[in-house]
Please model this.
Amino acid sequence: MRKTSLCNRVNVGLQKELAKLSHHRTYRNGETVLAEMEATSFVGIVVSGVLRMQKSLEDGRQQLVGLLFQSDFFGRVFGGLSDYAIEAASDVTLCCYERRAFERLTERFPELEHQLMLSTLNELDAARNWMLLLGCQTTPERIASFFLILCRRSGADGWTPGASLSIHVPISRRDVASYLGTTGETISRVIHEMTRKGIIKIRNASDFDVLNKRQLVTMSGRDDLAIRPPTAAHSGSASSF
Amino acid sequence: MRKTSLCNRVNVGLQKELAKLSHHRTYRNGETVLAEMEATSFVGIVVSGVLRMQKSLEDGRQQLVGLLFQSDFFGRVFGGLSDYAIEAASDVTLCCYERRAFERLTERFPELEHQLMLSTLNELDAARNWMLLLGCQTTPERIASFFLILCRRSGADGWTPGASLSIHVPISRRDVASYLGTTGETISRVIHEMTRKGIIKIRNASDFDVLNKRQLVTMSGRDDLAIRPPTAAHSGSASSF
DNA sequence: CGCTCGGTTGAGACGGTTCAAGACGTGTGG
DNA sequence: CCACACGTCTTGAACCGTCTCAACCGAGCG
Model:
């Protein structure tokens, strides 16, 4: 386990209080954890698997607005309705807290609210980064950016220009398409074009080797994704991407 | 003044502490308040005018990731670097606090941090809403959505189907284009198409009358923008759009 | 008066979507 | 073990929306 969750970053007394409140839930791939506009009855931490947050238009178009991985916090505190649906993008296990009880705990322990604040700020930065991606990058750039982010997640990546790194895409093509604001067909075309250029190698539909990271960075049009996030003093863990 | 700023939603003692720390700054249209990746030396509240938050790519492409109006909070607390530039989108006056001093105050007054938390959560919802707009709406839909948001901001709008409402676009065409992830030319074309359909009337480049709000909603493809935000218990003020 | 700047208009090119068909791979039942 | 079927991914061709580039317009200002 690389990352430490919000609950592990607070003092021991508070950890015990949290533990008392917690219960686990499991969902199968595709199940809905919290529907869009549903009152948020519980919040929590992802123990294993991947959650997707998504919004949809009346006519059925959908946009994936975020992914949550192990140790990420999920659920909308302080304000009844969830603005987006939370669904299992794989089989998942969640560590849950009844929302009101959790909120009361933040009143007694400002430290807890502070950790939540740090996570939220990171998520906000990530969301704005994504706005940049959706608003002014081409589809190939988006896909390259997405791959670079996966490289970063997959850990061992001290910008080694020549080395080959294998990455795993933890979600379906359809989800990737929705996340990147494009279609499955286009992703397919771009990915195969990338193999033709020797940037990546396709192991199977969800596993790839990055053969030429430098070219991937060039293709993404974003130098900022080449390096690790600037592990700021408090940076916490939240999915800053 | 319709909205109450973060500083006015806390208890009087804290308001006095804040007042002691505050100083005003003014910027001319176009000036930079905080550059991208600059260390955030101060944070604050918009007194008058409009701020734009924007990110840019190495090659010069830019994305406006948010607008800040009167009484909105600006600046990245708890974490040195600002992930985006903050610039004056008009002449502005700001009420500023030295960042470190402000952060120390949040330690002494959890209430202050809580208000900040509520604002941040609203901003996060807004950012994700914008991801939906950028990721899966067409340009005409985006422009209609933008107009509907302006309708909402301009206050008196209890969903009156027939009534005509005049709105003011407080930023330049270029900024609107960057906000909506499109170009000035396309905006121009769409807006004039909208007048041809009798949806709006152009007073001048930045003032419009909405003649048919129902059609505007249809065009936006989003029912959720037709109504006021569900003024949640704590909802605070932050630019939830 | 003529410059500049923001906005508008037009024509053409291009990227990406759409729709439809085909391949692949995986699990199921005979 | 093979045949079949289903979902997911891939490939192809045509189409359409939006961008690009360039010219034009009008207001504000020196």
Residues 172-174, 184-185, 187-189, 192, 205 of chain A lie near DNA strand D (CB under 10 Å from a C1'). Chain A touches chain B through 50 residues (CB under 8 Å). Chain A has seven helices and eleven strands. Chain A has two domains: 6-132, 137-234.
